[in-house]
Structures are given as structure tokens and as C-alpha cells.
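Here's what a typical entry looks like (TonB-dependent receptor):
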Amino acid sequence: MQKERRREVLSPIFALLFFCLLLFFVQGVNAQEDSVKAVDSLSLKVALLQLESDTGYSFFFNEDWIVNKKVPANIQEDGIGPTIDKLLLNTNLNFYILENEKRVILLRNTIIYDELPSYFFGRPDSAISAGNELITEKRIRPTFILKKSEQEKRQFPLTRIGRANTNNLKSSYMLKGKVTNRRTNEAIPDLAIRSKGSGQVVISDENGNYAIELPAGYNIISASAMGIENMEREIVIYNDGILNLLMEEGLQELEEVTVEADAVSNVEETSTGTETINLEESKNIPLVLGERDLLQVAKALPGISSAGEGATGLNVRGGKTDQNLVLLDDAVIYNPTHFFGIFQALNPFTTEGADIYKGSIPVEFGGRLSSVFDIRTKNGNVEKFSGEGSIGPVTGNLALEIPVKKDTSSIIVGGRGAYADWILRALDEESLNKSQASFIDVIAKYHHRFNENSEIRATAYFSRDDFSITSDSLYNYTNRLGSIKWNHRHSEKTTAALLLANSDYRFGIDFDGESNTDFDLNYSINETELKYKLSTRLNDKHDLDYGISTKFYSVNPGSIEPQGNESDIAPVFIDTERAIEGALYLGDEIAVTNKLSLELGLRYAFFAALGSGTQRTYQQGLPRNEDAVRDTISYGSGDVIETYGGPEARLGLRYLFTPDFSVKASFNNAYQFIHTLTNNTTVSPIDTWKLSDLNIEPQTGLQASLGFYKNFNDNMFELSLEGYYKRLDNVLDFKTGADLFLNENVETEVLQGDGKAYGVEFLIKKNRGKFNGWLGYTYSRSFYRFDSPFSEERINGGDFFPSNFDKPHDISLIANYKLTKRYSFSANFVYQTGRPVTFPVATFEFRGSDFVAFSNRNQFRIPDFYRLDLGINMEGNHKKNKLAHSFWTLSVYNVLGRNNPYSVFFVTEEGQVKALQSSIFGIPVPAITYNFKF
């Protein structure tokens, strides 16, 4: 049996190895094309002087033109003209030979014309004979530089591009290059480059690359982007060439800048269901206890919600919380929250922003069914030491940006800490007087730019939560991750990135009670990923993304050990689970026409559960329990237990009816090989992760979406309407009364069934002006079905029932009003349908004992949720020469004092079952935070 399974995995492994060899072969070819052959070289000046001595010709040139230019030393002489041509091949220099005077004149970019074409002064085309055909001369005028008097009036820097060639005279040439932030050395995407003469406009891509076709000769180009100072340049273009731009950061107001890039992507991008959040957007949203929170901003967007106030995790388009891939600088963060979801575990002053994919998931991502949160950390300041921080009622925060080598490398370091214990002790609840709750998180990122084609980024992150709501139990959970990424530009068309990342999540419980039952309980999951991805711009019609990735998982399903010599707890250790997950992918973004674009992608996902360990097999036709065990199989270290995998499609379409109105559609399917095990109503930080194995199959899902996008009033308003449908297979849920933790045979306690979700999302956003914000509305439904021939494996009779996070109506309103440059007001209103719950509906007596009969799973709902928050931002004066710039934030969370239920539970008092409601914040919560920046 084991040998058969080994054979099953050989084919995908050979495919992975073959793809690796293919990638390295392709890159080897690229490297060979782009590199200079290893031959002896000498300076161009020395070569010219040597040629002058050997031939008797006199050379005339400006030495500034040939500084640091090298040529091969072994160029074979083949006449004066061909020899000079070889020497100048990789420069922008031309030459003109005066044979009678034995003089050679070098020219920068241009050439000397000793004869003009017949049509230069307006005469008609002339026809010349070529065999039996008549060929009309090209009516292309040579390019000449401006008069000296006009050059003296020039206001912008003049740049000459290309090397003129009489055999390649065109009416227009292609200018390419990369746009870079001078301070951070980061590429600048979405930068608009305009030609004032031709009216051409192009936008730089995500790597800062651009390409624009310009008329031959004199041009003025301008470049502008959000937060970037506008630049204008005068150029004279003689041939195709490269112009890299170093841009300065601008001092525009955020709301004036943010919207333009968003407006372009909203209509013009091919992908559906994509949201981009700049962390500055959270500055003006009133949040609990004054803490900026990117995840809370995300929950205010259509299609994204949570199970309740204080619940860890997000639900995206009707998906479970474990179906979201949350990345911090390309490394997975398993629990991105502190204190049961009340705070995010991300430092707001080191976080740059996030791209959220809830519809069209890029082909490079996989392993989750619902969404990807791609969170980015800022690069540090490479010019000067700077910092930012805040002091609030329960948290303190500081981030420092430290240049390592000016204009080349930097480090950004951030740290946060909470001191919330005093709040718990101040509450009028005696049982909480000895409670504690605190957290810390630290992050550091190093960024080094070797040259314009190569850079490296390394991130390290750690967070820890400690909390104790009862006096005898101390809970803790930690996140630790690290990533290192090398970005390299192989050629003008191809860029690559090599990534190595590791993530670790664990939790523990230290129980110290009055009886002899003290124990330490632990759980952990660790994963390591290696990814190599490439992007190639084949031409104006095709942009390719392709690559390979692999992960290794190691899961400690749990252990419990006695604490102290007097503890009666028996130790339990569950076998470690291991697995590998891999993928190959290829995607193409196709510009069919100016109006129609397509995204086509194919990804092959592969998973193998590995030994050592044991797995049970169960008899067919019987419910899966202890009585149905057929065999127990033992696997050695590295043995393949089971393999899964298959193709994943990524399809997208966009059609532009007008420049500000488009329709988009998408389809994708995915595999998920990792699951959470929980029987809590809402997700908690002590939920465990389970790998697919012989008895638990991977989850699969597909999603189709259709959307309409429209901008108004010069992109001041954005409007979108998008609908989606999801289908899910092999989703996990628990049997009634299931015991999931520290269970060696957890497959007997869970069920796998079907799911479906559908909905419509509406968003209207005002981007500019004193009053701005957005209104989002989502109608969504999410259902599960667990059917089986056996009653103990059926839920609700095998019919579809609402999931724990099914909330049909969700409304979010974010409003900001800027009274002056220093004072602004903000409001946040949220309304959601109450989530489903299961209630007891009757009591009965059996053999002298009282029992409770419950309703069907999730048959009832808790009361609807709504909340209003208000805030005021008061900025300090805007004097330039200050030690630090600061502002105060005053906010009131839950202004209306709404006692929104977090959960409903039942107790028996005096023989009667009573329903009780728990809430997180049942009163208004004011906060004042001081923020500073230097």
C-alpha cells in the first residue's frame, strides 16, 4: 500500500523538478543574453587614442561623453569605419569621417548629414527603381537639436535619448524606463507619464516600469503620481532608448492624492473584487480605544465582516475565517489580531497598506478558498533618521526609520505594547479584579538596493498575547514570522523575485487551580515556504506571470503535561503532522483591444501528507466511529500517507464602454489543504489547524462574479455593483458534542459537507472635497449542508442551514468632514443582521434526570447589531521647522451605548432554563490618543 502511494506522488514531484530545471535554464539564457562576455577590456578613450596612433586619423570628442565607458580590447581592425562602429556599439555616440583631412568627429546621439533627402524641403516623394519595382522613399525627416538661443531659455533638464541611425529613421520611437522613489528607492506604480506634444499617456506598472511612444525629435514629458512631486523633462529622442526617473515625494494632502490612483484601478483593472487600503485611510476612522486598525477598515468594505464584536478573524463573501490567506511581507500570519480581535496585530506606523483579493485571486496565490490579504510593510527612510508614534489609553506605539547607507539601505523598527490590566481591575465586577490582559508586537524590516536592477528586503515579526479572565488559568498565544525576498530585473522585459519565508503560530494554557489538576497545554503550527516568481512583458499585448512555490508544514496537534509533582493530570502527546504543498502557475494579462482585456491563468496545486505517524481506515457503509475501524497503518518518517491536487483556473474579463464605465467578470477555483477545528460559535485564538490526511480531504471551491464600475465628476465619485456565487465542497464542521482537542482520531468527530454562498455588493465613494467617505451595502447568504445515510452524521436532516456568520444585510457608512486644515470630524456607522444561533426549545425528564432539547442547528438569530462611532482629529500647526509634528485624536466608540450581543448562552436556575446575553462593549467607550511624527 505504501509503495503504491509513493508511485502516486512521483509524477507531480517529477513535474516540479522539471519545472525548476526549465526556470533555471530560461534564466540562464536571459543571464547569458544580458551579461558581457568575460574578455579583457580597456577604456574607450585609450582605445580611441590607440586607434589614432595606428591609423593616423585625428579624433575630436568631448571627454565627458566617454567617462567610465569600456570596450573589448580584442576588437579586430577591419577598416577605420567598421572599427570605430564596433567601438561605439554600446554607446550613444556616432561619428563622421573627413577622409580628405583624415579627421574623425564624434557626435552625441545625432549624426552629420552631408546630403538631405529630396523631400526635406517639401518636394514630393521620389521613386527609385529596385529591379522591376518602384519603391517610394520614406518621408522621415532627420532629427536636429534646437538652436542655442532656444536652449538657453530652457526651464527643464534636457536629455538626449538613443543613437541616430540613418538605416532606422522613424517618425516615432519607444522610450522605456523605471520610475523610482529617490528617498526610499522603491518602484513607483500607477505613475502617469504624459507627452505634451503627442497627448500620449501611459501608467507605470507595479514594478515602476513604463513604455511610451514619442515623436522623433524634441518632446516635453511630465510625470505625476499620488504623493509624488510632479516632474517635467525636455528630451530629444533619436532612437529607441531608456530613461529612468528618480522622483521626489510631494507634500499634497492625502485625500487629494489617494483617489486618482484608486479611480483608475476601479474602472480599468481587469480583476474583480479587489480592494486596496492605504493605512492613512484609518487615520480618520474612529475606532475602539483610539487605535488605528487596517482590519477594521477592511470590515467597513462590502463583502467583508466578522462573526461579532470581539471575534477573531474575518469572513469574506460567506467564507470561513480559515479560508483567508493573510500575508505580512509574503509570510503567513495565522492570527493577525490581539485580545480576541479587538486590536490588530499590525503596527500602524510600519504598515504601508494592503491589497485584498476577494474575487479575482492572482495566479501566484493559492491554498485558500475565499480571499488573500497581502499586507505590506513600509521601507525605511534612506536619507535621514525619522520616527512616528502614539500614546493611547491602553496602548503605546513607536516606529523608527534608520538609514544604514544613505540612499541605499535602511531599517524600520516598530514596537507596540498594551497596558489594559487597569481597565479590567476598574470594572465593577469582582470576578475580573484579578484578571489581566496584555500584548506586545515588534517588527523590523531591512531594505537594501544594490542597483537599479536588484534589491533585497528582509522582515522579522513577533507578537505575544497573555490574558487571564479567571484567576486559575493563564492563556497565551504567539505569532512569529520572517521573510527574505530578492527582487531582480533580468532585462527590460523580465523581472524575478526569490522568496524564503517561515511562519510559526502557537498557543498555550497554564492552569493553576486549587485541586491537583494543574497542567500545561500547548499547540503549534509551523510552515516554511520557498517561492520563485517571474514577470515578463512580452509586448504591448501580453504580460506573463509564472513561477513555482513549495511549502513544508509541521503541526503539533497538542500536548498536555502535569504541572508540578502533585498534579494528577496524565500526560498526552499527539503525533506531529507533516506535509508538503507545492504549485506551478502561469498567467497572462492580454490587452485584446483598448477596451477589452483578459486575464488567463492556470495553477496546478499539489499536496502530500507525510509520516511518521499512524492512520486508521474505516469500513465502507458504516458511520465513522470506533466500531467501524478496519485497520491502523503505520508510516515511517518521510513516507507518503496520501496525495491530493489538481488544476486551478483564473479567468477574468474587462470591457470599457467608456473611459469611466466598465463591466467585469471573473471565475476561479481553488484547493485548500489545511483546516481549522473548532466547536466554538465564534473563532477563538485557541482553535487548532488540521492538515488533510488519509481521512480528511482538502476543501475545494469555485467562485463566479460579475460587476459594473462607474466614476463620476472627474473621478470624484466611484460607484460599483458586484454580484458573486460560490460553491464549496468538503468544508468541515463538528458533530454535536464533539471533542476536538487532544483527540488522536479527530476524523471521528468532524463532518465534511457542501457549502454555498451568494450576494450583491454595492459601494459609493466620494474621494475629494471637505466632505468625503463611502457607503457600502452587502446582501449575502452563506449555507452549509451535511448529509449522510447515517443520522449521527447528518445535521438538520441533511438540508442546507445558515452558517454561523450568515448575515444577510450589512451596511457601513464612513464619513469625514475637514473643517480646516487642522480640524476634522469623522463618523462610522455599522448595521448587521444578527448571526444565527442554536437555542434550547424544550426540557424533558428521562430516568430521573432533566435534559434539554435543542432546535435545529442555527435556526434562530441573536438581535441585530448596530453601532455609531464619532471622532475628532486636531492637528498641530504646520510649521516646517519643528522637532515633531503631532495631532490629537478624540473618539467615542459606541456613542449610542448599544448593548450589542456577542453571544447568547443558557443556564439552569431553580429548574428553569434562562437565556443570558454577553456583550463586549455595552457602553460608550471614549478615548484620547496623542500621535507624533519626527
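The helical segments are 2-34, 44-55, 80-87, 148-152, 254-268, 294-299, 421-426.

More examples are in the samples folder.
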